[in-house]
Design brief:
2 copies of one chain form a homodimer. The first copy, chain A, has one domain: Farnesyl Diphosphate Synthase (Orthogonal Bundle), CATH 1.10.600. A two-stranded antiparallel ribbon of chain A has the order 1-2. The two termini of chain A are about 30 Å apart. By secondary structure, chain A is mainly alpha-helical. Chain A has 16 helices and 2 strands.
């Protein structure tokens, strides 16, 4: 058991997230401005800077957990937060590249309370702008021109490959009758853990940290990512649409084999078996797209009865604990450690 | 006028292309093997290594001009061709990433005489595998870990950004009534010139060439790319489907504002005006998808009558000449110069 750190309670999470957002925003905007029209406008729409008609907007650009982590990452290596900014922006670009492509592949029509890019600007723009953001991420890092920047780009590229592997696994799971809890965790580690891990190492690498330090920071980020995703999976079924910006029962509508579903199916017992039969019938049903709220609510209740909700809640706590433990493997300023700890706490209790 | 180089006539183009293919193939295959299933199989299908049922195939993997250029690029800097191999593979991965995404965006159903990936494996796999090949390209270069590899990756990233810009321009042109010849050339420079330019510099950069040498090699590659694209535009209208593997009048069916079309529209005169009226009506026509062969043949005849075919043929020759001229700005072994010259000659006379 790690002794409690009283400094954690004094961390202002909102201010920490806002610092990440504020310091990375101008660099992110300048990067997006490099894109040829109409990709610059499509990207600006995606980030919430303009609306579908091209008018300035002050949209929800996401929680901005990754930029906050990238700046703390630089500070963990004893550098100024400014050193982490290109890393923060590069990770944010890769994250948004994946959102643009995943929303199209998954047929998601809403994100951050707004129509998704493919819905407003068509599939071709979603593909193109996603590609462009991925390329921009590498460009931004590589034009720094240092050995550290090369190492940072390599880590980002590895994380991006895992992220793509994870999306491939996620898609393949939707067509499979059974997925084990282990397979689901591997998928989520690729899809969410790898890029969060990179966010936590990239600032340190840009600040000159060695590979061992970067790897240990990545261990914290990876397990933080798994905790983050477990919470996301809970919100994907039981989240409040007003908070999440997604439809009710969002993940069930998409037949996602997320952690609560997979854990419920693995649990055994009457609710688990009934759920298994229902989901099997759903996979072959032609009426699935016209299912009522009640039909999804019934499936959610079975998942809960079979223990999938409780297991996933506990899993988030387990991954949170492993993440915090990893933090102790790196020598860093105590204030930075307190802030990273507080961010991990925030990720587990968030409602959106 | 550059004096003729008698060594050019003795270059065996088929052997040069085969060398590029043979030396890069094992590295390309090993890279693709890193992908998580089913992306590895989807990529293998795209490259023609297996058929749609997963059986081994010996498909047409393309002309392989880029790998041949990347190996010569290393030799131009005095290095062995082996030094250029990771560059050859990285460029080939980026090229194929763009083919996978472009075929989907453009709705192209055939490539290299076979159904395209999105047609066989669905749009999601085309997006995912494209993304994965792009990431692999960077991974392959960056894991070399040298300063030169970082510089090579930066050049490849810049080229990829231009390639994406070019595809964005190409798509936007399809919805516009008029496109100038200059706009078309800019688009083609981005879409084709930039990556060919990178193929010609990447081996040299990996071999330790300075930026000035790399830039001059890129000038050759860029104009070679424009010559290549001019020929592609001619083949896209008048090419033999048995050779190109595409439909008859392929670019006309897609309403592509390619060079012959744009030049014909800019030429003025009766044929040019009639063509303009027809294409304007086509853009609003609901029957376009059911047009007969004769209707496309008539449009092709008007393009030719207005001078678009002849202008594009001459443009290929002009760009070829500029490319050859640029070659003389780099000090390199005469045999390599002869091979690069012969490759430029080949690009202009090819039938596929």
């Amino acid at each position: 058991m790690t002794p409690a750190n009283p400094a954690v309670d004094t961390v202002d999470i909102a201010a920490l997230l806002e610092r990440g957002r504020a310091m990375s925003a101008p660099v992110l905007r300048a990067a997006v401005d490099r894109l040829a029209p109409p990709m610059d406008s499509v990207a600006a729409y995606h980030f919430g800077w303009i609306d579908a008609q091209g008018r300035p907007a002050d949209g929800d650009g996401g929680k901005a957990v990754r930029p906050a982590l990238a700046l703390l990452s630089a500070e963990a290596a004893g550098a100024t937060p400014e050193v982490g900014v290109p890393g923060a922006v590069a990770v944010e670009l890769v994250h948004n590249f994946s959102l643009l492509h995943d929303d199209l592949m998954d047929g998601d029509e809403q994100r951050r309370h707004r129509d998704t890019v493919w819905k407003v600007h068509g599939p071709a723009q979603a593909i193109l702008v996603g590609d462009a953001l991925f390329a921009l991420a590498n460009e931004l890092l590589l034009e720094i021109g240092t050995v550290e920047a090369g190492r940072a780009t390599r880590r980002l590229t590895t994380a991006t490959r895992k992220l793509i592997d994870g999306q491939a696994q996620d898609i393949s799971f939707e067509h499979r009758e059974r997925v084990t809890v282990e397979e689901c965790l591997e998928m989520e580690g690729n899809k969410t853990g790898a890029l969060l891990a990179c966010a936590v190492s990239i600032g340190a690498v840009l600040g000159g940290a060695d590979d061992k330090t970067a790897d240990t920071l990545e261990a914290y980020g990876y397990h933080l990512g798994l905790a983050f995703q477990a919470v996301d999976d809970l919100l994907g079924i039981w989240g409040d649409p007003d908070s999440t910006g997604k439809q009710t029962w969002s993940d069930l509508r998409q037949r996602k084999k997320s952690l609560p579903v997979v854990a419920a199916l693995a649990a055994g017992g009457p609710a688990s078996e009934k759920l298994g039969e229902l989901l099997k019938a759903d996979a072959e049903s032609h009426d699935f797209d016209t299912f009522s709220e009640e039909e999804f609510a019934m499936r959610a209740a079975l998942i809960e009865e079979a223990g999938g909700r409780e297991w996933t809640t506990q899993e988030a706590r387990r991954q949170h604990a492993v993440a915090i433990e990893a933090l102790h493997g790196v020598d860093m300023p105590e204030q930075v450690r307190a802030q990273l700890t507080a961010l991990a706490d925030f990720v587990v209790v968030r409602k959106r």
